[in-house]
Specification:
Number of helices: 14
Helix content: 25-40%
Strand content: 15-25%
Structural class: alpha+beta
Largest sheet: 7 strands, antiparallel
Number of domains: 2
Length: 404
């Protein structure tokens, strides 16, 4: 073993992980969970973000409050809160319920929260680290991103290289300053480095109209030892960890020798089949139809009834898309779409991750791009007399599928 590698190993073995460090991530994440509480939070955003009117209150509960001097700050105006929210969704400890101003909520997910309660500080720290670097995606924050750059791992690796092995005086380098805060995802990445204790980040008091005034940033010795150990395995292997093992603990075999307290991990529960009769309100602009369909029917049958309800021919491809529990979009396509991950004839209605009041999108005919809003209104108990789906209610004239 090289001298540098031995030094990294010794430093990792000496590191104590608790609410006091490294970083403030465990204390601040716990404050976020307590802030949401058993009743949940009202959330009117499409992405179920934290409520705007309570952001300052939550900020004050953090170990290092940001206190931005903005008239109407949004969640992205608090990079540390944005980072904690990413961890909340990537772990599925926080999930949406309902939708819109009337029913939209952000609530704790009981199966995952119960598991979280059993983990020790070391296990919590590394599960959150994997949530950020292995599972985190830009979409969870309502931000756009595609391919490699949608992964928070890619952004973190890029920022880590830019920070380098010397302290950066950001006050003297306006271009480097803007690089770290030029968009919400860049600022969020730097904030997560700070939360996990991987960098020392010095900041000043925000000026009028500012949310974050950075002064200096430098890697910590612990941050270098930990990330160099992880990144030494190579990008390809890191990505395969995410694909081959969707649960937590993929990095445990490589780090447990330094952190023997890391024994247990969060595990996502298997999708649960919810029996009953599902009532969907399907809108295409103003016209809408209400369709009742049993849980054991598949999305292929629902697609057929939507097409029939709007008097379309049904001779084109289509797909359903909807948010999963972690905020990522799931697509389920027509059986003839060869490169699709999932097909409509193999996905039962009862496995949809939608709560009552939430919607999914049905796109029919990729050329014409007919987009239907399909809202789950309610789920009633199973009805043995209901032998097939039916159109319960119909309002408005459907548009002509073809102009001529």
């Amino acid at each position: 073993m090289s001298k540098a590698k031995q030094q990294r190993a010794d430093l990792l073995r000496q590191q104590v992980i608790d609410l006091n460090g490294p970083g403030t991530v465990l204390a601040d994440f716990q404050s976020l969970l307590e802030f949401i509480g058993p009743e949940g939070l009202r959330s009117t955003s499409k992405y179920h973000l934290l409520p705007l009117e309570r952001l300052r209150e939550l900020d004050e509960r953090m170990r290092k409050p940001l206190r931005p001097r903005l008239e109407r700050p949004q969640q992205r105006s608090f990079p540390h809160l944005n980072g904690l929210y990413l961890l909340l969704r990537a772990t599925q400890l926080g999930v949406p319920k309902g939708e819109g101003k009337k029913s939209g909520m952000l609530v704790l997910n009981p199966p995952m929260h119960d598991q979280w309660q059993t983990l020790n500080p070391t296990e919590r720290y590394f599960n959150l680290l994997e949530a950020w670097l292995r599972l985190g995606r830009a979409e969870m924050l309502g931000e756009r991103g595609g391919g490699w750059y949608s992964m928070m791992l890619g952004r973190a690796m890029e920022k880590w290289q830019v920070i380098g092995d010397r302290e950066l005086d950001l006050c003297r380098d306006p271009n480097r300053y803007r690089y770290f805060i030029h968009n919400p995802l860049s600022a969020c990445t730097l904030a997560l480095f700070d939360l996990f204790g991987l960098v020392n980040l010095q900041r000043g008091e925000p000026g009028e109209g500012e949310n974050w005034r950075l002064q200096t940033v430098a890697r910590t010795a612990f941050g270098e030892a930990l990330l160099e150990t992880i990144l030494a395995r190579g990008v390809g292997e890191l990505l395969s960890d995410e694909e081959d093992r969707p649960d937590f603990g993929a990095w445990q075999p490589h780090l447990q020798e330094f952190f023997p307290e890391w024994r247990n991990n969060l595990k996502f529960p298997e999708p649960e089949f919810r029996d009953g009769v599902y009532y969907f309100k399907v809108k295409l602009g103003s016209p809408w139809r209400r369709i009742a369909i049993a849980a054991d029917c598949d999305l292929e049958e629902l697609a057929g009834w939507i097409i029939t309800a709007f008097e379309f021919d049904g001779d084109h491809l289509y797909e359903f898309s909807f948010p999963d529990r972690d905020g990522l979009t799931v697509s389920v396509a027509h059986p003839y779409v060869d490169d699709a991950d999932m097909h409509t004839d193999g996905y039962s209605i009862g496995y949809l991750p939608l709560a009552e009041g939430q919607s999914m999108k049905f796109t029919y005919d990729y050329g014409a791009n007919w987009c239907f809003d399909v809202k789950l209104e309610k789920v009633e108990p199973p009805n043995p007399r209901m032998t097939k789906p039916r159109i319960v209610e119909s309002h408005g004239k459907a548009p002509d599928e073809y102009e001529d």
